[in-house]
Amino acid sequence: MAKYLFITGGVVSSLGKGITAASIGSLLTSRGLRIRIMKLDPYLNVDPGTMSPYQHGEVYVTDDGAEADLDLGHYERFTGAPTSKLSNITAGSIYWDVLNKERKGDYLGATVQMIPHISNEIKDRIRALESDDVDIILCEIGGTVGDIEGSIFLEAIREIGLEEGRDNVMYIHLTYVPYIAAAGEVKTKPSQQSVAKLREIGIMPDILICRAEVPLTLDVRKKLSMFCNVPLGSVIEECDVKHSIYEVPLVLSDQGIDELLLVHYRIARPPADLSPWRRVINAIRNPEGEVTIGVVGKYQELQDAYKSIFEALDHGCIAHKMKLNLIKIASEEIENNKTELLDQVDGILIPGAFGNRGIEGKVAAIRYARENDIPFFGICMGLQCAVVEFARNVCGLEGANSTEIEAKTPHPVVCLMKEQKEVVDMGATMRLGAWDCKLTAGTKVRELYGEEIISERHRHRFEFNNTYRDSVQENGMTIAGTTPGGELVEIVEVENHPWFVAVQFHPEFKSQPFNPHPLFAGFVEAAKKRNQLKSGA
Ligand code: GLN
């Protein structure tokens, strides 16, 4: 039977609850425990798939095609434990299922209520992660204690504590201990009130993790311990980290949090081997050089919109001991060929996107990369724009475009599957989740992956139009990867260029700090070479 660990948050949002949960997960994994992590999101959308990146940051995609909260990305990156459709539950999906059951008559005429019907549905979904190969289920509750939407989730996790037995269940509360500069002191009152709110519901936190700007003195810890009713040794401090979020597992492990958990669950395991984390931190703290990467996209103001891309670039840099100098460029800024913005970069990356805003800027950036031998990495929409650029400027197909951008283009080099000459019916409108891809011998990607068949995650509707395969190939673009039967183009490369790779899938979702994705590592290596060439090294 699996044990449960619930992680709630208090006082304010944006404390990094997902990273804290992922870090705890990584420590448990390092102690040889098999874990699963999930996120409960109290908002009413059925999934974040239709939410704007401005609202919700990146949409993370799992192997089984769930469009999920970006915290699942942290979970997979930190722990390696797979996530799936079962790992992200929204209030909307819970209500949806309960109401459907009600319509089908599944409740046999009973009055359908928040407790027990909604709370039972939540508990069932949490328990759905139970399996013989899982020791601990970590469950992060989105939002902040006190939110109206979140209260039924807290009720459900309280009930799990009662039903599974307190020895098998732990509650961690992540709180904020602000430093008030004018008074020159840190304040514990918000934490006290947040824990009081939890206790009102019937949840007694076992561990308090305190996000803080300044280290907590013993007096402050004692105060938190007494007023929040948590043993002194279970008051853990999590100050802002200096270099990287990947320091958090080490910060928490130094305070013995994994031991607290194992003691509570009465599980004995050898100490954690944290050497992979130490190697990662060492590479981040002691870089041997620097690469400047320009990411040309449309949601640049928002740090979270390209979360996995930025993380994967970091991983590529960790692999080559490079410091990442990231320049975020709004694609609209380079429209009308204002490519000066790209002069300083060692590599250009174009991430995924939907809709036509900023497209011409991306096409201009790609042309600049292709013509000036700047390493280029196109992802999803980045591939589609690379094909458009190549068709227009190399193959001479004037006005070539994607039908997503211009429905009546004379050369629909990217289009919906059903618009293709030989219709390939792949079912649902969106190609989502893991698909196998066969790599072409002799290509850069074949060398980087080191194997012929790979699997990567997708989230798109439009595809390279097969009608144009011959035309681009005759002009120096290689089809470097396709679906195993050859039906759909997955990767293109441009010949006679130091590093020009564009992929229809999202490799960023599968990169980890100690296991960097080969394409990101390859891209950073190419950028490093260009940087060295520039500086005459
Ligand atoms: N909008 C494009 C499509 O639907 C690309 C999507 C993406 O970049 N994720 O195919």
Any overview of this molecule?
This protein is of the alpha/beta class. It folds into 2 domains: 3-279, P-loop containing nucleotide triphosphate hydrolases (Rossmann fold, 3-Layer(aba) Sandwich), CATH 3.40.50.300; 287-535, Class I glutamine amidotransferase (GATase) domain (Rossmann fold), CATH 3.40.50.880. Helix content is 35%, strand content 22%. It contains 17 helices and 23 strands. The strands form 5 sheets. The protein has a 9-stranded mixed sheet, with helices on both faces. A 7-stranded parallel sheet has the order 5-2-6-1-7-10-11, with helices on both faces. Helix 1 (17-30) runs parallel beside helix 3, helix 1 packs across helix 9 and helix 4 packs across helix 5. The longest helix is centred in the last third of the chain and has 17 residues, at 518-534. It is globular. The termini are far apart. The site of glutamine has 10 residues, from strand 19.
**CATH C-level of the largest domain:** Alpha Beta
Number of strands: 23
Q: Flag low-confidence runs.
A: none
Biggest sheet strand order reads 13-12-14-15-23-22-21-18-19
- The domain count comes to 2
CATH superfamily of the largest domain: P-loop containing nucleotide triphosphate hydrolases
What is the terminal separation in angstroms? 58 Å
Give the fraction of residues assigned to helices: 25-40%
The average pLDDT is: 92
CATH architecture descriptor text of the largest domain: 3-Layer(aba) Sandwich
Strand content: 15-25%
The CATH topology of the largest domain corresponds to Rossmann fold
Over the alpha carbons, how many angstroms does the gyration radius reach? 25 Å
